[in-house]
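Case study 2.
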Amino acid sequence: KKREKVRTIPVKMQRNISPFKDLKSLFSLYRVFKKEKPQIVHSITPKAGLLSMAAAYLARVPIRIHTFTGLIFPTRSGVMQRLLVFMDKLLCSCATNIYPEGEGVKNDLISYNITNKPLKVLANGNINGIDTNFFDSNLFSLSENSKLKKELSIQPNDFVFIFVGRIVGDKGINELVASFEKLSSKNKNVKLLLVGPFEEELDPLQEKTTNIIKHNKQIISVGYQNDVRPYFAVSNCLVFPSYREGFPNVVMQAGSMCLPSIVSDINGCNEIIIDNFNGLIIPKKDSNSLKESMQFFLENKTKFNEYSENSRNHIVEKYHCKIIWKLLLKEYQEHNS
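Prediction:
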């Protein structure tokens, strides 16, 4: 609101399934749309998408756009998967235009027969792109980096792996911590920097993982940070072994800050990262492959430097935010003409 100088209307929504609260949010959205009479409603994320598209349909909003980001149903099974598939089919039936965030998301929507409506990926994927002028390691001086390293007890010759995101099982944290525990036992000049909140009520870590984080002095957990750039600036490589994504911003942010990435072979990650070019792609939930990839960067300085240089150039060329903004504006104008 402050940054863009626009009017905002807050509507509370429950993140997990909660029938009573969801109906309450649906009615609140319906009232907003009836009063404001927008030409376009554009929703993002599963819960907001379902409620917004249904409310917009009921309120007779002419253009109802949904962008699918990370899909949940491919990683579920049984009754829960059927419920999630039904919800996404309902969402699509209420929408007039559907945009998958990337080619992987598009393929999943097709393979699960979620909708027969046209599916369009904007540019090279993602919902907003990256401001590469903002995510730029050159904005941080050596003295600033040295100061933060000192605060975090990172030595000048340490190799720093960084994870940015929610510290939960679904992000592959159990595998990451287990891999790093083995790696750090044989190498004292390596650190793991965890940047993000623990969400124990939604997706708790294994007790063993929590204990390692607490007792391994080479693991540094700094919690949620409003600005993650200083932490990228003192790191060498992003490790992002998530189980599922749509098109992860953090991988693009790291690349824009000249960090190569180790990522799972999942939607989005395997579109941003080209294996052995700007990072390494590993099977998800594979601790051994994760450890070997981390070891690879520690032992191959020439390759590491090559991937680092490729990382920023790749993001600037394919994922600059202005590319996405221009195409999205064009879509709005065409639908509204």
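Residues 183 and 291 are 7 Å apart (CA to CA).
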